[in-house]
């Protein structure tokens, strides 16, 4: 069995000794888990445990993580060591074996998790050197100064680890080409110096250096020429990364068209000069392909008029001092990579460009800061929920305290409080809470009322969409107070069961008569021979049935059972009324809480029943459908901003707009800008399909889609940086996104709402009112609202913002 770490279960494995000086680890189905190369080792170190049983074995792997095996018995381990020794002897390798305690052996082992942490931190420091990022942001090497840490820090990357760092498969063409180019000494591993040499060119090299590196990367036979097949391999390597969004035939068509556009249609191979000439239109992008976290270098200020991040016509113009100061303010926290809008069929030469550059936020490394940020976001996202819960809880607590205080200090001297002080306080206080909760829980099920109130200003203060969740919360709280109420009465019954009849006749004159007997009633008399007792027992049974079948497990197993048992609430309210009507301790008070919500609930139910009697024609609907954003067509220019699942309402709007445009339907809306903010494009792949359909139907270019992927902007690790570079190259070559396969523009980071909205005023100077519709997390809609408020202070176009949170 292989040991993976102290917190990971062991797994059964098979060890296979290969003829090419490699050791393969297979799982129970024969699949290769990992391969350990022994080619560059002169000797192999094996550590055996000296504990009783002698079952553990550690095989050191200097350039990878170690292999730790546990055998069922010592004889099995000895047999393995013997076979390994014979194998290494045939391969002209030396085996060095020594022993230590099992605890020390496991501590000495470099596990896969440890190596991942070390490599991750080292990569951050590597990028900190290349990108001039503060080392405090890159993380610290806080591992023990032991031999295993030193070995790991001086290790080299295997092909599998290199591919894993990129988030790709080890057998992908891109990994194969990049790895072969970086592995200068040809030992099958990439040292950090070898990788740094390539990274520096990608991040800080000139356009010539970058194109030359790409040329060498795909010049497989190293003859100084790039054949059509090798060029096609380059395109296919990017296609492979993007989940095969283009077929081989399409890639071949792109290759032929690029050769023809550059005048190389009669050539079968290209020199580097030819290859660089083919990318002549992308020289600026190649030169600006880098990640700058600190302030803007002077060269960017001098060439800012060539960058798409700011609105411009194609004609050159100078930048005034005021504009230069604004430039510093707007772009201080943004990525410096020029994201040029790709050329599309039908685009006019003098068309304005939009400010679409993504913003980057500093990634918090400190765990405490991460927790604080998470807590702040929780408060921001659920502030309405928190206020409602706190207010409801405060009312409940107030009712409990009021009743407890009344029976403790302010009630008429009936003797009951003096006889059972604790029991009466608990039972009366919890009874008031139960009466309030079981009454007002009805309002959470008034569907018609909630639907109406959701469209009013109250929706900004009360989360009506969370009515069902609030219903569950009230129900759980009511159950707790019901148990507390029962506990209070158990105390009362115990005390009354040992109290003389002469005393009970004074306390409950309507129930007991003093016949001279000192024997009190038994405890079961209170439960099964009194109306409050019998109704109380029945209420507990009903509550138990309703709560059990309302759990997630039973709703999933049988929703019908949940639905039927939940209708016992009618009997529940009848029994609650009877339970308190006997007035054994106090006059009935349940009606004080129950009448108002019961009337509203009854009216809501009657409205639903009246609608069911109305016959309507059969309708066939096809979604998805929007809500709350249906006024988009009233504006000449509309901006739709969707975050997370909040993009759902906009899917039907996009399809409806393009359909009406394709049939030449008259529309007031002339342009739609759709901004999709998502952590990863795979989060909502169904929307990508809808956007692709919109792109195919949108012949009049009514819709402009911008996708902002925020997850990749959080860390500057190897995978993020390399895929960022690949995305830019893929967009330049194929006019498609590497990540989504769409023509829509893909950005990395958060959308800059203020510059984006400001640029709309120059793109559409004739429009005096722009509609902005956002749906998503409160943090996002709040940012949109602030941007609109800031721009509405200017004497220009007015931004009318409509938003919904989820």
Automatic annotation (TrEMBL):
The membrane topology term of the UniProt record is: Multi-pass membrane protein
Pull one GO CC term from this UniProt entry.
Answer: NADPH oxidase complex
Keywords (alphabetical) are: Calcium, Membrane, Metal-binding, Oxidoreductase, Transmembrane, Transmembrane helix
Subcellular localization is given as:
Membrane
Keyword RNA-binding recorded:
no
Annotated Gene Ontology MF terms? Answer: calcium ion binding; superoxide-generating NAD(P)H oxidase activity
Q: Which GO terms describe its biological process?
A: defense response; superoxide anion generation
InterPro entries recorded for this chain?
Answer: EF-hand-dom_pair, EF_Hand_1_Ca_BS, EF_hand_dom, Fe3_Rdtase_TM_dom, Fe_red_NAD-bd_6, FNR_nucleotide-bd, RBOH/FRE
Ranges for domain EF-hand come to: 170-205, 206-241
Where would you find the membrane-spanning parts of this chain?
382-400, 433-450, 494-513, 525-549, 561-584
SMART domains tied to this protein: EFh
| UniProt xrefs under Pfam families | EF-hand_1, Ferric_reduct, NAD_binding_6
Where does this chain mainly localize? membrane
Q: Under which name does UniProt file this protein?
A: EF-hand domain-containing protein
Organism of this sequence = Callipepla squamata (Scaled quail)
């Amino acid at each position: 069995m292989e040991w993976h770490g102290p917190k990971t279960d062991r797994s059964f494995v098979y060890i296979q000794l290969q003829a090419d000086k490699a050791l393969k680890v297979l799982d129970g189905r024969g699949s290769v888990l990992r391969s350990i190369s022994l080619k560059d080792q002169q000797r192999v170190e094996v550590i055996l445990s000296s504990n009783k049983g002698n079952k553990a074995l550690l095989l050191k792997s200097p350039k990878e993580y170690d292999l730790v095996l546990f055998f069922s018995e010592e004889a099995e381990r000895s047999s393995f060591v013997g076979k390994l020794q014979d194998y290494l002897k045939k391969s002209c390798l030396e085996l060095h074996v020594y022993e230590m305690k099992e605890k020390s052996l496991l501590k000495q082992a470099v596990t896969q998790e440890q190596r991942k942490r070390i490599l991750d931190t080292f990569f951050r420091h590597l990028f900190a050197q290349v990108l001039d990022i503060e080392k405090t942001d890159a993380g610290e090497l806080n591992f023990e100064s032991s031999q295993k840490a030193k070995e790991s820090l001086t290790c080299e990357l295997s092909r599998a680890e290199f591919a894993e760092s990129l988030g790709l498969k080890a057998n992908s063409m891109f990994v194969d080409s990049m790895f072969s180019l970086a592995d200068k000494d040809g030992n099958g591993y990439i040292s950090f110096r070898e990788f740094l040499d390539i990274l520096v060119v990608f991040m800080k090299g000139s356009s010539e250096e970058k194109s030359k590196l790409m040329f060498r990367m795909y010049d497989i036979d190293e003859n100084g020429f790039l054949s059509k097949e090798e060029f096609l391999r380059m395109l296919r390597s990017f296609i492979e990364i993007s989940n095969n969004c283009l077929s081989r035939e399409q890639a071949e068509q792109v290759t032929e068209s690029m050769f023809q556009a550059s005048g190389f249609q009669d050539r079968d191979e290209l020199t580097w000069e030819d290859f660089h000439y083919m990318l002549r239109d992308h020289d600026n992008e190649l030169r600006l392909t880098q990640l700058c976290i600190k302030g803007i270098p002077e060269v960017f200020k001098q060439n800012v008029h060539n960058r798409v991040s700011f609105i411009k016509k194609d004609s050159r113009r100078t930048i005034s001092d005021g504009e230069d100061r604004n430039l510093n303010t707007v772009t201080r926290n943004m990525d410096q990579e020029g994201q040029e809008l790709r050329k599309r069929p039908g685009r006019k030469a003098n068309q304005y460009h939009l400010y679409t550059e993504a913003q980057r936020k500093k990634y918090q490394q400190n765990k405490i800061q991460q927790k604080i940020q998470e807590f702040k976001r929780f408060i921001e996202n659920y502030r309405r929920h928190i206020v409602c819960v706190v207010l409801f809880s405060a009312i409940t607590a107030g009712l409990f305290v009021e009743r407890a205080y009344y029976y403790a200090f302010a009630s008429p001297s009936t003797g009951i409080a003096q006889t059972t002080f604790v029991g009466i306080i608990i039972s009366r206080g919890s009874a008031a809470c139960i009466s309030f909760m079981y009454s007002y829980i009805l309002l959470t099920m008034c569907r018609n009322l909630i639907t109406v109130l959701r469209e009013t200003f109250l929706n900004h203060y009360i989360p009506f969409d969370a009515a069902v969740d609030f219903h569950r919360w009230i129900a759980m709280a009511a159950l707790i107070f019901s148990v507390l109420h029962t506990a209070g009465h158990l105390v009362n019954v115990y005390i009354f069961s040992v109290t003389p009849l002469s005393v009970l006749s004074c306390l409950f004159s309507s129930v007991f008569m003093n016949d001279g007997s000192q024997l009190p009633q038994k405890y079961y008399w209170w439960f099964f021979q009194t109306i409050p007792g019998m109704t109380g027992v029945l209420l507990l049974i009903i509550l138990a049935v309703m709560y059990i079948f309302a759990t997630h497990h039973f709703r999933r197993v049988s929703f019908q059972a949940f639905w039927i048992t939940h209708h016992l609430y009618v009997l529940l309210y009848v029994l609650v009324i009877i339970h308190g009507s006997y007035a054994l301790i106090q006059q009935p008070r349940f009606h004080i809480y129950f009448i108002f919500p019961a009337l509203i609930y009854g009216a809501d139910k009657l409205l639903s029943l009246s609608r069911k009697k109305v016959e309507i024609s059969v309708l066939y609907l096809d979604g998805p459908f929007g809500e709350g954003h249906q006024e988009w067509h009233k504006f000449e220019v509309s901006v739709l901003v969707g975050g997370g699942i909040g993009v759902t309402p906009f899917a039907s709007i996009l399809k409806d707009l393009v359909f009406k445009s394709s049939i030449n339907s008259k529309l007031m809306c002339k342009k739609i800008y759709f901004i999709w903010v998502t952590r990863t494009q795979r989060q909502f792949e169904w929307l990508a399909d809808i956007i692709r359909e919109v792109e195919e139907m949108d012949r009049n270019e009514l819709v402009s889609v911008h996708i902002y992927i925020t997850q990749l902007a959080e860390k500057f690790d190897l995978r993020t940086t390399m895929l960022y570079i690949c995305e830019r190259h893929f967009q330049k070559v194929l006019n498609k996104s590497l990540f989504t396969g769409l023509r829509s523009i893909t950005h990395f980071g958060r959308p800059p709402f203020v510059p984006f909205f400001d640029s709309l005023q120059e793109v559409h100077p004739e429009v005096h009112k722009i509609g902005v519709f956002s749906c998503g997390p409160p943090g996002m809609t709040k940012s949109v609202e602030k941007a609109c408020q800031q721009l509405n202070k200017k004497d220009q176009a007015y931004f009318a913002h409509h938003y919904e949170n989820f």
